[in-house]
Amino acid sequence: MSIYIVLLGPPGAGKGTQAKMLSEKMGIMHISSGDIFRENLKSETELGLLTTEYMNRGELVPDDITIPMVHDRLSKPDCKKGAVLDGFPRTPAQAEALGQILEKLGGALMSAPYIEVPAEVLIDRLGGRWTCRACGTIYHEKHNTPNVNGCCDFDGTELYQREDDKPETVERRICVYLEQTSLLIEYYREQGLLYEVDGTKTIEEVAGQLEEIKKKR
Ligand code: AP5
């Protein structure tokens, strides 16, 4: 049976960082809705042009665009064994839709780890984030530095700062998270799937807490 994990947490909690490591350890795909939107923006597809304004304002892309996009991605052969979902679901409608999608695909949600981090830490993390333009590896100017300043350790490509990491957009993203996405904590708690993780620890320590979910398989 395919295995699916949903990583919950506010912007900057470390979902992308942890999803990459966890998916590699578990041998399943890392699916980030934000990365799919950014790839579409880079390739100037219709979807990319349609969603860029929402992202730059720090608002959620509407469910009727996001849900079919993720459904389509999870239906691809490389997701046959399952996926670590990062950034989806983000609304109760997306969570309901995910349940139906997984049922159709013959899989089930194994766990919904919630990476908990206070707001003041999030602002520092997003302000110092640098990402590789080619492979998407995430760095931080203080907490997770590349070997050579401004270059990715894996492919030497230039690092960039995300458009939506400007302080005013970060503030809006945190508000949107509190209003619309934090509801999912109770949603998954009620289903017995929530697993609380202290996201203020080091990257390695958080990864260690996430490893525990494998024991629950
Ligand atoms: P998305 O790309 O999903 O962004 P996000 O959820 O806001 O999360 P981030 O990617 O900013 O943070 P993260 O938790 O992954 O942290 P990271 O690992 O990078 O979404 C962007 C936009 O797309 C949304 O605003 C929306 O418009 C749209 N969108 C996406 N999905 C959508 C959906 N489902 N529905 C509607 N719209 C959607 O870490 C952050 C930094 O901290 C890094 O520098 C990292 O090195 C550092 N760090 C990580 N962990 C630690 C640690 N333990 N200690 C110290 N530093 C750490």
Folded structure, characterized:
Helices cover 48% and strands 18% of the residues. The protein starts with a strand and ends with a helix. The radius of gyration is 16 Å and the shape is globular. It is α/β, with parallel strands linked by helices. Helix 2 (33-42) crosses helix 3 (46-57), helix 4 packs parallel to helix 5 (92-105) and helix 6 packs across helix 7 (167-181). It has one domain (2-117, 169-216): Rossmann fold (3-Layer(aba) Sandwich). The strands form two sheets. A five-stranded parallel sheet has the order 2-3-1-4-8, sandwiched between helices. The chain has a three-stranded antiparallel sheet with strand order 6-5-7. Bound molecules: BIS(adenosine)-5'-pentaphosphate. BIS(adenosine)-5'-pentaphosphate is lined by residues 9, 11-17, 33-34, 37, 54-55, 58-61, 66, 87-88, 90, 94, 125-126, 128-129, 138-140, 143-144, 164, 173, 202-203, 206.
